[in-house]
Amino acid sequence: MPQLIVAVLVALVLTACGGSQAAGPEAGSSSALASDDAGAGAGTDAGTGDAAVTLPPTTGRFDYQLGTAYEPDGGLDVVVRDATAEPADGAYGICYVNGFQTQPDQADLWLGDNEDLLLHDAAGELVVDPDWPDEYVLDPSTDDKRGRILDLLGPVITGCADAGFAGVEIDNLDTWTRFTEPGTGLIEKDAALALAGAYIDLAHEAGLAIGQKNAAEATTVGRDLGFDFAVTEECAAYAECGAYTGVYGQNVLQIEYTDNLPDGFDAVCADPDRAPLAILRDRDLVGPDDEAYAYEQC
């Protein structure tokens, strides 16, 4: 009888231990992929804390179609289009959202009752991007302003998911590097990153992978915030590609432009720091029917 009691107790203890291992913290947990795993390949799922998202493929044909959406012969594997466009059939679609400046045709959304969400200079004048003078700069300086910005742009991001896009890229994160003086308009780095974090959370809740757009200075902090991949314009022209691939691994999409290519596109493709999917486009991103159209891929 004593031996039987001992045997039963041992069996119960072993069963309890097995059950606790199956329910441990790793079981079913979800966290963003570490940068060492970022090149796991096409269709990699990254846990986000809310829902699993699928990263863009790292092989195949890539295009950047913000100016004109079109279907090239042979199809596409990855394509970025504006939030107002439809995702391409059969491709991994990434939705472009201007998250830190206004779109040229949407000024009315921000003026009037929402004008306090726009950056002003010391004289109280609205600040515009000197390179894009029809775009106002958003002001993420307070929790209240960030919340109201999210109220306006959040439906655009969730609308990307509803339309069938798999990812989203948020443009102009780097406003804090360009608007640095109170006299001419100041964006604080911490405020910009706080707004970026809100976009990341919203995208993940909607099941979208989210890409850091430009801002080579912030790739490490961007990855830590929760960005899943990166989209970089002209990293070869400015010798910054390693800042992206060194943090995001293969999960980087690279666009160079014909009007700013110091060493030619062959040199871009030969650069060991370039992204696996690197393309050359015309600055206005027009379609193939336009004589200014340009497209090459490494």
Summarize the structure in short.
The chain has helices spanning 2-22, 107-110, 143-163, 175-178, 189-205, 219-225, 241-248, 265-270; strands at residues 45-46, 53-54, 62-65, 78-82, 92-98, 128-129, 132-136, 167-171, 180-181, 185-186, 209-213, 229-233, 252-257, 277-281, 295-297. It is α/β, with parallel strands linked by helices and 298 residues long.
Estimate the helix proportion, in percent.
Answer: 25-40%
Helix and strand string, N-terminal first? HEEEEEHEEHEHEEHEHEHEHEE
Q: Characterize the overall form.
A: globular
The strand line-up of the biggest sheet is 3-4-5-8-11-12-13-14-15
Structural class: alpha/beta
Structural description of this entry:
By secondary structure, the protein is of the alpha/beta class. The protein has helices spanning 2-22, 107-110, 143-163, 175-178, 189-205, 219-225, 241-248, 265-270, and strands at residues 45-46, 53-54, 62-65, 78-82, 92-98, 128-129, 132-136, 167-171, 180-181, 185-186, 209-213, 229-233, 252-257, 277-281, 295-297. The strands form 4 sheets. It has a 9-stranded mixed β-sheet. It has a two-stranded antiparallel ribbon with strand order 1-2. A hairpin with a 2-residue loop joins strand 6 (128-129) and strand 7 (132-136). Helix 3 runs parallel beside helix 5 (189-205). It is globular, with a radius of gyration of 23 Å.
